[in-house]
Amino acid sequence: MHMLTLITFIPVLGALIILAWPKDKDDAVRVIGLLTAFISFALSVALFFLFDRKDPTMQFKEFASWIPSMGINYALGVDGLSYPLVLLTTFMSLISLIGSLGIKVRVKEYFFWFLILEAGMIGVFAALDLVLFYVFWELTLVPMYFLIGIWGGPKKEFAAIKFFLYTLTGSVFMLLGILAVYFQSNPHTFDILTLMKAHAGWSERFQILVFIAFYLGLAVKIPAFPFHTWLPLAHVEAPTAVSVILAAVLLKMGVYGLMRFCYGMLPLGFAWFLPILIVIAVINIVYGALCAMAQTDMKKMVAYSSVNHMGYCLLGIAGATVTGFSGAVFQMITHGIITGALFLLVGVIYDRAHTRDISAFGGLALKIPLYSALMFLTCFASLGLPGLAGFVGEFLCFLGAFQMWKWHSAVAVLGILATAAFFLRMMEKVFMGPLNTKWSDLEDLTARELWSIVPLAVLTVALGVYPKPALDLMNTTLVSMVGLLK
Amino acid sequence: MTHLELLYPEMALAAMALGLMLADLFIAPKHGKLLYHLAWFSAAVALCIVGLTVTESAYQGVGTLWTADPMSQFFKMLVLLTTILCLLLGLEYKQLPLRHAGTFAALMLFSSLGMMFLVSGIDLLLIFIALELISISSFILTGFERKNAKSNEGALKYFVFGAFSSAVMVYGISLYYGATGTTRLIGLGEPGGPLFTLSLLLILLGFGFKASIAPMHFWVPDAYEGAPLPVTAFLSLAPKIATMGVIARVFMLLIPAAQQDLTTVFMILAGLTMTIGNFTALFQTNVKRMLAYSSIAQAGYILIGIVSGDAKGLEGVMLYSFVYVAMNIGAFAVVQAVGDDGTAGGNYELSAFDGLSKRSFGLALMMVLFLLSLSGIPPLAGFIGKFYIFSAAFKTGHYGLAVVAVLNSVVSVFYYMKIAFHMFLRPAKDETPLLAGPYLYGGLVLALLGVLIFGIYPEPLIASVQASAQALP
């Protein structure tokens, strides 16, 4: 059974079919796109039942020799850290494609690039060979460039190239890091699992240098302060579904890499960087929240809230405890779901009103109750209301970090306050008060929009009330991961 | 022993090129296309001769001035392959007068003949004559569009710079003779001393001119912009690769740069070539010029392999050369399809690419793949080439150069994506579908297969490069 290969490459197959499909058959293209994304999702759900929660090592491993003369292999596998992210990717891709059904121009190209992007994202989480990982990592760049550049907003060209160049600059340093560990290991190998056991013989200086190389590549993606400036721009200009996938999955690639490589492969470098990482986490949390508070554009506000939420992930990682790690991974999942829903909801209002200005609305709660209810739920989840999914991750992150970083955690709590403040202010201005008569003929959600948003809302509640299934998935692996720092 | 049997492919090609010149006199201009077909067929015959004898030890050995070894055979095949692809492009090129088709095609063949000698030369005399054969043919080819002022300007600049660099090189060779008492590159003992080093530097200057290594690159943009497009594609590939081949032979195997303390020189040249090429390309609005600067930058990447100086570096040079042929010829083929619009001189401005994805999605997508490969994005062949070269640099401890190289790749993405931007993000001025001829598509598809197959599954290519990276003596 080559489950992971199937999950990764079925979207590529779909993309190729779409490419070969005759022009102007937009509906067929949509069906093929949805179908392949669905098959990929269904297969990754099947793994959920086959996944052995007691096994901390890689499962569903696949191995084939790819470029033997350079020691590069085609190796895939998932553990408790990467499997939840694979599931998140296939799920959010399907949701985003449902959300993309409203795309009217150049449908064929859109679905083509989107499916290539999906394959790249899944591959990043499943790859067990550094070069393979890098190939998938870069594979996400080009589709994203076109998705933002063709279907984006007014400043799309600039946003697209800025995204491309920023990410590429970071990742070429990661490539150098990959080469460095290859030549340091003996015998030379790109195999991630072997390298994770090899670091005992590496000097601290070497680990720090390679850590920096990797970190530059990953921090841009996360995005960690001060490399976050591409994110608001890309988010605001990207079409709705692309914003969703950007926030829900692409940012997670950075955090995942940080846990897998920077921590798992270079513990001395990680330990050296820890005091800086915690500061960056706090800056991300507080500064991200304050920036979000200053925005008048709803989409930009949500974008900055992503910077803030990624800060929680970094906080959890900086704790270097099982609790912190669980919090970070859980936060990745819930941020994907909640922020995905937020972007979809903002997209809905933008489609109707053609503005996202917070102060342009007012009193929408009575006019479009269904929409408002979903928006309230998602906002509350995002600001971390207990009982909803966002709270669990944040709580675990703080709990994990607090043992080692009491003062930093205390400062970071201010970020939670600010987050609550800007979400509440937005809800007040948009949904409360008297109805702005300009919007008296606004319509509520359509069936297509409900199909993409309701599953996310259901998950938000479910994971908030009963997070155990998700935590069980990751627990064994994370327990085996901690303890490298001693 | 003269070992003339080692030169069968060269002899065959020379005979066929001379035949083409003669045939030009007897064939009516309207049948000029026939001569192109004959020309690429001749190159293909020579390619087959080399290809069929590549594993035969009877056809390998050292002659008086030349050597036939796996390394030279590899470069010969690459040059001939490039020649064939460029002649295919020439078949579709609208600006060439059919009246001189035979001359044009024969000059291409003479030029590649020079390159075949160049990559197998082990004596500076042969190397110099080979370089002159390449240069003189190229001067004429560059100025072949007689009515086009830019073509004439490019040819003249090329000629002036070429004559100058030849003179410098001859001077270098005379110093070499003074220092060693021979023009041979083998059996030198342990040469050294300032005179010897100076002679090597001057010879390198001559090579650098042909391979467009900064700071000997000033002729490149004008000559490339003015030359007929198939010639531009040819110049950006074949002479460059052949010269890299001879640089690799001389400065990696026969007189290793490291032993003469020349590694730093090569390092500076590589860094300069990449950086100047890429940063100047950023500001170009003419695609031909942009690709000219891009080809300078690509030469810089290849030089990294020579800086590394070990077996992996040599393999890197050869691997990258191969990959570079595929991606660059592909990019030029699309440029020709778009720019050669029947008007005098064609239109190669960036704006000509506006909305190409609307006019021909296939061409636009292929162009994006070639450009991404040139900038080294996986999973395309260009990535494998860069990866190999960079790992050679890492292995030999040239970390600084590797950092410069990867940052250069990022810069290059900016201008390569500018073309993609015009093709996909700009609306088309006229939305008439763009159709290209069958030979152009043939060349394109070959290039595309190379870029895709060797990007996704490079093992056979790497294996054959590793087998070819052996030289005699």
The count of strands of chain B amounts to 2
Low-pLDDT sequence parts of chain B = none
Estimated helix fraction of chain A: over 70%
Count of runs of 4 or more consecutive helical residues of chain B: 18
**Any idea what the shape of chain B is?**
globular
Largest interface: A-B, 34 and 36 residues
Q: What is the number of beta strands of chain A?
A: 2
If you average the pLDDT of chain B, what whole number results?
89
β content of chain B, as a range?
under 5%
Query: CA-to-CA gap between the ends of chain B?
Result: 14 Å
Q: Enumerate how many helices of chain A there are, as a single number.
A: 20
Strand order of the largest sheet of chain B: 1-2
Task: Please state the structural category of chain B.
Answer: mainly alpha
What is the end-to-end distance of chain A? 39 Å
Whole-number average pLDDT of chain A? 88
Give a structural overview:
The complex is a heterodimer of chains A (486) and B (473). Chain A has 486 residues and is mainly alpha-helical. Chain A is built from 20 helices and two strands. In chain A, strands 1-2 form a two-stranded antiparallel ribbon. In chain A, helix 3 runs antiparallel to helix 4 and helix 16 packs parallel to helix 19. In chain B, helix 3 packs antiparallel against helix 9, helix 11 packs parallel to helix 15 and helix 15 runs antiparallel to helix 16. Chain B is globular, with a radius of gyration of 21 Å. In chain B, strands 1-2 form a two-stranded antiparallel sheet. Chain B has 473 residues and is mainly alpha-helical. At the A-B interface, helix 5, helix 6 and helix 7 of A face helix 14, helix 15, helix 16 and helix 18 of B.
